[in-house]
Amino acid sequence: MKKFGSTLLLFVPFAISLYILFVFLSGSYLPDSMHSNLVYNVGSAGHSFSRFQELKEQKNIDLLFIGSSHAYRGFDPRLFPDFQTFNIGSSSQTPIQSEMLIKRHVKKLNPKWVIYEVYPLTFSMDGVESAVDLIANDKNDFQSFRMAIKTNKIKVYNTLIFGFLNDMLHVNSNHKEAIKKYNDTYISGGYVERKLAFYKAEKVPTKRKYEFNEAQFCAFNASLAYLRDMGIKVILVQTPIVESEYESYSNNSKFDLLMRSTKLPYYNFNKLMHLDDSLHFYDKSHLNQNGVQIFNKKLREVIKSNDLLK
Amino acid sequence: MLFNSLNFAIFLPIVFVLYWLLSKRPLKLQNALLLLSSYFFYACWDWRFLFLLMFSTLLDFGSALRMEDAKSKREKKWWFWISIIINLGFLGIFKYYNFFADSFAQALAQVGWEVNPALLNIVLPVGISFYTFHGLSYVIDIYKDRIKAERNLIDYGLFVSYFPLLVAGPIERATHLLPQIKKQRTFDYLRAVDGLRQILWGLFKKVVIADNCAEIVNQVFANSNEMSSGALVLGAIFFAFQIYGDFSGYSDIALGTSRLFGIELLQNFSFPYFSRNIAEFWRRWHISLSSWFKDYLYIPLGGSKGGNWSRVRNTFIIFIVSGFWHGANWTFIVWGGLNALFILPSIVLKTNRNNLEIVAKGQLFPSIIELGQIVLSFVLICFTWIFFRAENLGDAFAYINGIFTNGAGLAALNKSYLNLLLLMFFLIEWMGREESFAIAKIGFRWKRPFRWVFYSFLIFCIGMYMQTEETPFIYFQF
Lengths: 310, 478
Fold this sequence. Notes:
heterodimer; A: alpha/beta; 10 strands; about 45% helix; globular; B: 18 helices
């Protein structure tokens, strides 16, 4: 039994070391299609790389936006000229990743207010897509490790191993991301503007429900508690999506109730304003630039009429 | 609790350490620990069905004692049938009631009599087919005076509920497992290391081979009417790999886990896809079930005695019953019937006992004839798997029809890494085909660091190619 235990004690670190080496070699030298549980895309969709590069120069801002693509495609800093803003939204960002970003960056950014974009779908996701995006495009530290544990998926662990090694070896230090990619243009302040396009109606499933993930609510509450402890005021905003898409979910009101139970100002713009599906959206859940202008104007009005951001 | 889950990765080491800490204590403590762990393991699926398992255990334990103590043949027979009827009754209600009720209603509808049978909305208790067969073999062996009744309830309970084999076998025999349970076990380093090695290979087969093939198989079978002929053929081949990787992977994990506790379970697979005919395939595929049917159905029916007609009849009976054992669906029955049909030439020509040794033993390559036989057997088996995998007979026939009519060309089944993994898997299985599992001896002559690099590489493959979500084993539904 002793021999068995000591052999295992030798084998485990040996296997872990080799595992790390194999992950590094496969991520570095094999094509992406050959390592299914390692997704490391520097400069992926949504200009995350540019955003987090720009973030390094930011501090003491007025207003921080955080959330999913609805945040970085929905809050245009040019439409908030009275405030110094920054947007750390990222693709499919769920509350688990938001918590990581808040704990990593908020101290330095020192915002007076945070507009936290809450999209029910991100509270129902596992967060893998966003986790691997942020590992590849933001720095990695102890918070990344905590986020990986909370997400608890092998794809995130592998990508994190590769990310740590790449950071250590400064592999991405010379990477440059184009300001214009496909139909997207990166706007200083973390915003991404999509070339004007219009939504074409598509078939929406009949009634369905969000299956909320308890871990996402834990992370969400942890973020709110952290911001409260820092003395930062938080506004929760649900950005508008195409009406038929919104109405296809039967438990929107449950989500509204959960948000209101935080006792923070919460605004669901799907109910506060009416936008035209084909004129103001480019897909079922993202506003086009016309829609962003109307939405941001309405948001400013709501902020003003409720005496927020003072 | 799945073998390929984090929960099991925590559960197993805890039980392992506690178990060997008790090795200097009386054996009954070790057995009690294993029994409690097994009940905990089972309760993790659905604690309500634990009572069914306990009831089944008590029933067979009690009726075996009554049979042994019976004062007359009549009394013995009475207790025997009590046990058989209740065991099969539970199996029938949980597994087959809806099938029979539905089929009966459909038959009546054919003659214009519409009835709406009351179908049960119940979940199939996991492992019921396996532990019922454990119990049945025990009771039959007692009735036939082959073994003595077990008088220790904990030992008998462990025989039925031992967690490595509880939910998907191998289907053990009292003559094989009970003596091991009653004997003091001592820790054997080589056996434990071998167990770990077998667990590793089982995990590789399940999470790398089976689960990745499953993605393609699900895609092909769900959209078979839109798939090209090439894609449909590939779908059937990938399913052959999926079900082998899934079930033999499970069996390897079960056997390896049991070795950690010093208990050897029956070998369930022995490289079936290297078989040279269907008879050989069935000696190498789900061995514990095949031998169960042979001993408790085929031989009592007369076995190979008598003329060709009785051999053919008995063969068809056991294959159709075996198909039905897998599930209450006509697809399984046709699958069993097809296997009987394909085995028929060997039965009639009395060549079914040929090829007892593994193919090309002691050689690197098979002969051309052997290769042809292996390929032909594999093609026939893949054909039968179409029925096994299809949702219903209509889908199965449409799938087969599609192979011949959907037009040539391979669909873009874009998993380039899977082809390499399958090639690696095939080569390792071929190299290790003379052992009880493929990597049992691979690297034995290498220096330790090289051997460990090989194991580490398998671990890496598991981590890099496993599915993000845990996927259950196919045979848990049976």
